[in-house]
Each structure stands twice: as C-alpha cells, then as structure tokens.
Specification:
46% helix; three-stranded antiparallel beta sheet; alpha+beta
C-alpha cells in the first residue's frame, strides 16, 4: 500500500515539475533583461543643472535608468545620435518611432534590428507608451557591453576599478540638461563559501529526517521542518517582491503585476512552502510527502534560480548584496533540507510498513 502511494506521488511530482518547467519558459524570457546579478555597479550622480521635481535613479542592478518628471513640463531624453528619443511629461511617456535608440534600448544587449524608418535625422514621430510621469529604459552609455572586462580589471580583478564616468543628455524645452553617473567594477565574492554554508545547512536540516515518524522525537522533528519551511517560504516571497520594488513597481498592483509577469514561480513556490510548513505543523496525513515536494520546488525555483548572487557583487534588490546572498542561503537550506528530511521519513515509513519476511 505504501509503495503504491509513493509511486503515485512520484508520478504527480514528476508531472508537476515538468509542467512547471514548461510553463516557466515564457516568464523567464519575459524577465530576461533583469539580470540576477552583475559585477558592474552603475550609479547616478545627479542631473545638471538640477531641476526640482526631476529625479533619476538606477534600477535592476544597473540594467535600466528610471526618470521621474514632476516638473509639470515635458523633458526629452536624447538618443545616441543627438535625436529626441523619449518625452516624459504631464501627458505621459512617449517614444520617437524614428529614433534608433527606441529599438536598440529594447534589450539589454542592444541587439534589436533597426527598421527602415529608424532615422535620427527625421522629425520626431511620437507614440504614447505609458501613462504617468516615469520612464524606464536600457541605456548603453551607462552599461559595459563587452564580453570581457576592461584591461585594468583583467590586470587586477581583486581590486575595485572605475570603468568610466558616463552622461545622458536631456532637454527641458530648449534648455540642455545632463544625467551624470559612474560605472565601476566591483570584485565578486567567493561563491564557494556561500555554497559551502548552504550545503552544511541543508545537511543539518535534512538530518531531521533521521528521526522516524514512529519515534518519540519524530513529531518534534516534523514540526521543526515545518517551521523552517515557513521561514524559507516567507523569504522566498520577500525576495521577488524586493526585485519588483527595485525595478520600479509602484503600489500593490504594480508589485503583483510584476510578480505575475516575471517572478511568478519564485512567488508560487514560496507560498507553497508556507502552506506545506503549516501542513507539517498541523501533523496532517502525508505531511512527509508534502514537505519533500514543496521543499524541492522551493530549493529549485526560489533558491537555485537566484543563486547567481553567490558569484556576483551587485544584486537586483533594494538591500545589500550580503543580505541578498543570506536570503538565498536560507531558501536553499530550508528547501533542499526539507526535501531530504521528507524523503528520509518516507523511506523509514516504507520500511516500517513492509511485511516481515518469515524465517525458515
């Protein structure tokens, strides 16, 4: 009986993982321009001359610039050939269909093919792309696009380097303005240390599965795994919310929309881990299988999927990279550790339920 249940559970788990992998592809493609981490730190030093109500900041670990215009007047962002590219004002955000930057800035790599009517010398052809007074865009002037680091970085990768100072021109009516900023190389952390901490932690959590359900310590061990899954699930939900806030999401609706568009599987596996943790705390039937499956999904889609921060110095979240790495460690430890604990408990239960072989 137990083996039959486990076989059906295995089929369900395999089908669930396959469906998740297949349906996750569009979401991953949708958020492909938001890097999971980078070693290049982009900063905005200010707008010159300053305009009250006009602010610019870096989002998505430097992948985009965000300009918010509350001056009450339209401000234009100038493209790479000196042409009008974006217009941000009280009537919304517009892009110039004739500006090459309109197409080049659609991807982080800047590799979009230009249409025949992309002509910087042509009069602007404005088309509305958003309501509000905030524009977000990739800007090649604030990025390092080469496949290899600068020569100074290759010579001394253990040190921080100023790659360049950059500027993006603006226009307020007939008045020229400039966004100023810096681009620096920041040495990456030692990824092996973070992985070692994660492995030691998940082994410790997995060891809770050595206390079989029938033992006196079994129920307490199950409750401990449940608590850890609740913690890991909560962290797994907070992390993508932080990514959306860092990317400029406004309000609850903006955060939820961003999560559903690009961070949905991290969110769902976090919520699933929360539910599985409470299920284990309630000591419901099949709790061992539930924590094993929820832990596997949590570790894969919210832990491994964000583990790039172990080897990158800049994380796409509004808190420090060290905190981001610590959060990913918690998710990996609780997710994969819960999987190991659940599998060990299931194995022990299966052996205990097996009929004894009579001795001759």
């Amino acid at each position: 009986m137990i083996r039959s249940v486990l076989a059906r559970a295995g089929l369900i788990a395999a089908a669930t993982c396959a469906a998740t992998l297949l349906t996750a592809a569009p979401a991953a493609a949708h958020g492909a321009d938001a890097p999971d981490g980078t070693d290049y730190r982009t900063r905005v030093t200010g707008v010159t001359p300053a305009r009250p109500g006009l602010t610019v900041r870096v989002i998505e670990a430097g992948a985009r610039l965000e300009l918010t215009n509350h001056t009450g007047r339209a401000v234009e962002v100038i493209g790479y050939s000196g042409e009008s590219y974006l217009r941000v004002g009280p009537d919304g955000v517009f892009e110039n269909a004739h500006s090459p930057a309109t197409y080049l800035n659609r991807t982080l790599a800047g590799d979009t093919a230009l249409p025949p009517d992309a002509d910087p010398a042509a009069p602007p052809s404005w088309r509305r792309i958003a309501d509000g007074t905030t524009a977000r865009w990739h800007d090649q002037r604030a990025l390092w696009q080469e496949s290899t680091p600068p020569a100074a970085v290759r010579a001394a990768p253990e040190r921080e380097h100023r790659v360049r100072d950059w500027t993006v021109p603006l226009r307020d009516g007939t008045d020229p303005l400039t966004i100023g900023g810096t681009l620096d190389w920041v040495p990456p952390p030692d990824a092996y240390t973070w992985w070692a901490v994660s492995i030691v932690g998940l082994l410790a959590v997995g060891a809770l599965g050595l206390f079989a359900a029938a033992s006196s310590a079994g129920p307490r061990a199950l409750s401990a795994v449940g608590v850890l899954l609740v913690v890991g699930g909560a962290v797994a939900v907070v992390y993508p919310v932080g990514r959306e806030l860092d990317a400029g999401a406004q309000g609850v609706g903006g955060v939820v929309g961003g999560l559903l568009g690009g961070q949905v599987w991290s969110l769902l596996t976090g919520l699933g881990a929360l539910a599985a943790g409470w299920y284990a705390l309630a000591r419901r039937p099949a709790a061992d299988f539930v924590i094993a499956l929820a832990g596997a999904c949590l570790g894969l889609f919210a832990g491994v999927a964000n583990a790039a921060v172990f080897a990158r110095s800049i994380a796409p979240v509004p808190w420090s990279p060290e905190v981001a790495r610590g959060m990913v460690v918690v998710v990996l430890v609780t997710g994969i550790g819960a999987t190991a604990a659940g599998v060990l408990r299931l194995h022990a239960a299966s052996r205990a339920a097996a009929p004894a072989v009579p001795t001759p």
